[in-house]
Amino acid sequence: MPRIINLMVNGEKCQVIVEPAESLLDVLRVKLNKTGTKKGCNEGDCGACTVIMNGRPVNACLVLAFEADNADILTIEGLADNAQLHPLQESLIKYGGLQCGFCTPGMIMVAKALLDRNPNPTEEEIRKTVAGNICRCTGYVKIVQSISEAAKLLRGEVAHE
Predict the structure, then answer these.
(1) What would be the CATH architecture of the domain defined by 87-155?
(2) Do 95 and 146 touch, CB atoms closer than 8 A?
(3) Residue 117 half-sphere exposure, CB side, CA atoms within 13 Å?
(4) CA distances, 129 to each of 11, 26, 132, 140 (Å)
(5) Top CATH class, 3-78
(6) What is the average pLDDT across 47-53?
(7) What is the pLDDT of residues 31-48, one digit of tens each?
(8) Model confidence band, residue 160 (pLDDT cutoffs 50, 70, 90)
(9) Domain regions of the chain by residue span
(10) Residue 81 in this model has a pLDDT that exceeds 90
(11) In terms of Cα–Cα distance, which of 74, 67, 82 is closest to 12?
(12) b/e for 107-121, b at 16 or more Cβ within 10 A?
C-alpha cells in the first residue's frame, strides 16, 4: 500500500508517495529528478548511489524509501554552493580524480562524509573510505590525491583557484 513520506533533500522539504518496496535511490532519481545519484549495481556493492542521510553515507539502493521518512538527505546536486563547486569537486577536476564520471558522485559523497567527521585524514583512512566505491577508470591514486588536496582546501591550508 502506497504511503506518503517527508524528506529534506538538499535543504528542500519534499513530500513523496512511495510504494512499500521502492528504494530511496529510485525516489531520488525518478520522483525527485536527482539523477546525479547513479544507479549502478542496485545491490550495494558499487557505491555509485551513495548519498548522505542524516549525516552518514548510505547506499541509496539499499534503503527502502519509507525508511528515509523525515530524513535529511544530501545528494551530489546539493553539494555546490550556487555556482561555486565544493572543494572535493574542484580537486577531483584539478588532480584528474575523475574520468568517465560514473562513480564520481558516490565517491564525492563518501569523501564528504569522511571530511565532515575527520578534516585531516591519512591516506590509509581515505583509501578505507573509498574502498566501497568501485572505479574502473582511475586506479584510485588520483582520487586519493584529490580527496587529500580537498581536505587541505577545507582546512584553509591552500587557496581556492
Answers:
(1) Orthogonal Bundle (1.10)
(2) yes
(3) 12
(4) 25, 24, 7, 12
(5) alpha beta
(6) 98
(7) 999 999 999 999 999 999
(8) low
(9) 3-78, 87-155
(10) no
(11) 74
(12) bbbbbbbbbeeeeeb
